[in-house]
Every structure is written in structure tokens, then in C-alpha cells.
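Record 1 of the preview.
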Amino acid sequence: MHGRIAEALEANSPELMDSQPELFARHYTEAGLFEKSITYWGKAGHRSATRSAMAEAAAQLQKGLDQLALLPDTPERQRQELEFWSTLGSVLSAVKGFAAWETGRAYARARELWERLGSPAEFLQVPYGLARYRMHHGELDKALRVDEDLLRLSRQRSDSGGLVLGHFSSGRNLMRSGRFTSSRSHLEEALALYDPISHRALVHQIGFHSHVISQAVLGNVFLCLGYPNRALARGNASIAEARSLAHPPSLAVSLALGTELLSLVGDNAALDERAGQLVAVATEQGFPYWHSQGAIYRGYAKVKNGDVAEGMLLLRDGSSAYRATGEELGLPFYIHLLATACEIAGKVEEGLALVDEALLIVERTGERWFAAELNRHKGQLLLRHGNTEAAEELYRKALSIAVEQQAKLWELRAAMSLAQLWRDQGKRTEARDLLAPAYGWFTEGFGSPDLKEAKALLDSLIIA
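->
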């Protein structure tokens, strides 16, 4: 009966095959016609993903996989299964989170099938997705090795889409590992290679517009390198592009990275507004991963704007929700935000313990982009206990890391902390000689809090 209904619908209402493929999928499933049910579950999953109905897409793709498991294990079935698992991995990244075990399982199975079938070029989103999972799972070195494999294979095949994915993924992972200049090169290459027509299928393969996210990541890289104006321009352009494309997952990522950018710049009023936008999108779309980030940033903005009790509650709740997604990436930074709130609330011991926890995570995962600031923050906390010797050692370490990474913003902040310490010890000339070159490097962003503070400190040292 179900089979006859589906066949009648195909004959008399063929337009429904595109507009309501899940209707045919259910009928063919009930009829036990596996091949046809699999075809329609695949269509339904892709259609839902295109409409950004990610939870619905995940359920439909899983039903297709359930039907595939009933067929003999042939190369044809393996190829179909590869398509389902690779798409499901992308969808689950939005629904469950990039580091969720479900996401990892999908990409692990997809990678197994991809290699068994000879690494077909039309499924390069599989190594890309695996690299993304490794990154979010706190395995940056493994992620970068997958990126290298993807770039090598794409060059061998002259695959421009694979090169876009490889450069984008490399740039993102290198940024998080603190290799900012290399990150910038890869991201700019990804943006230069991207063509909105020939690469439009990439969004369906990876679940996001790579051009949007490349811009957003590049904005944060620019800030660390010491270009605040360029950073804010890139971040705003990324959000505007995501809104124009009306693609919720891409908008969520661009808002999350843009909110991180504002928290680093120190624009607390704009931070609160941007975090609210992130929470709104994540709530509307059912994205727990980005909702937790929005809660963290809203909490931090409240603390910085004077509502310490409410802000700390949001920070703690958001951090717990974020950890529940299985995430490792970003934890050192979010722990730093909570430690800063503790410091403002007078809970210096708790803040110190949190910074130590963050530094341990950095050592374990290799996420070194914020390592200089964590060492500087620990120095500040120890200085409040009167431990000037340990504080100076940590400021020097922060400065060394920043110089090694060519991270001019972190270098300026470390130089300011060390210069203030030396000034208070009467070493005014040494303090001025340290700070002047770090400040003098900047040619833009003179309205930013960092540069205003640095100029005030330098002026006081020169006057003295």
C-alpha cells in the first residue's frame, strides 16, 4: 500500500519529489523498498540542510543510514554511505557542536570509507571535517597534519575547491596554535582563490560559507598581529556577508568570532550588543554550541559594565554548557574571562587557580594563541599578592612569547605591564625604553583602549 501511494504521487504530483522528499522517503521505508527510501532520505536531508533546518536534516540523514545498513556491503553502498556520513558530519557540527562525539563518529566513519574508495576528489570535505573535529577536540597538531594532507592532495589534482578548504582550515588552525603570520598567509590565499560561482557547492559540503569564516578568522589574526582597524573591518564585513547570504550557521560563526574580537579590543558596550545577537541567533536556530559562547560573552560584558554578580552567574553557566559540548578549543580564553571576573570580584585566589588551569590546557592541546596573555594575567594576580619577582618573570615570559609569535598586541600589553612594574620600582628609563618601541610600531587603532593606556603610560614616563 505504501509503495503504491509513493508511486502514485510520483506519477501524479512529481513536483512533490523536490518539495517534500521526506514524504516519499517515509512511504518507501514503510514499503521496504530500501533503494528508493535511501534516495529520498538523502534528498530530504540535503534539502533541510540547504534551508538551515539542521536538526531535521540530521534526523533524515540518520534514517537514510539506517536503511543503507540493510543493503549488502558493496562499493556502491559504500559510496552512498560516504555521502550520507560526510553530510551528517557537517550537519551535526551545527546541531551538536564541532567536538561532539556524534560529530567525531560521523567524520571517522566517513574518513574510513573515503580512504577505502580511493580518496575521491568530490569528497574532500571529509578530511576538512576531520581536521575541524580534531581542532575542536584539542588535537591541533593532528588537525594541522590533516590540513597538510588535504593541501597536498588538492595540489596534485589541481582542485581549486580543495585548495580553498585546505588553506582555510590551515589558516584557522594555525591561528589557534599561535602562528599568526602563517595563518594570515593561508587565509588570504583562501580568500583570493574563492570564487562564489565555482565554489558555491562548498557550503553544502562543509555547512558554512568558507569566505565568510575566512574573513572572520583573518580579522582576529589581524588584531593579534597589531592591526585593530583592519581587524574590526574584517569582522564587520564577515557578519554583513553572512546576513546578506541569510545562512544561519555562517552568521552564528561570524558573530561568535566577532564577539571574541570585541572582547579582545575591550569595547564592552559593543560586546554586550554583539553577544545578544549571537544568543538570539543560537536560540532561534537551536545551536547549543554558539548559545553557550553567547552566554559567556554576555556574562563577561556584564562584569565589565559593573553587574558583577549577574555576570559571573552567566559566565559560569555558559562555561558549563560549553564544556558539555565536548569542546577543548577556546577553553583557555573562556577560563581567562572567568578569572578576570573573579579578580574584579576580589576572588584573587580563585582567579589564580583558573589561570593555572588554562595554562595546563594550553600545554596539553597546543592552543597557544592566547598564551602570552595568560602568563601576563598570572603575573598581574601574583603582583596583587606582592610577589613582584614572580610577576616580573611572567611578564618577561609573556613578552618573549609575543615576540616569538610576532603578536604586536600581546607584545604591547606585556611591555606595558613590565614597564609599570619597573616604573614603580624607580626604573623609569628602562620602562620608557621598553615601552616606546612597542607603542611606536602601531600605525592604526589609536582610539583603542590598549593604545590610549600605552600612550598615557609613555607620556608619564617621558614627563618624569
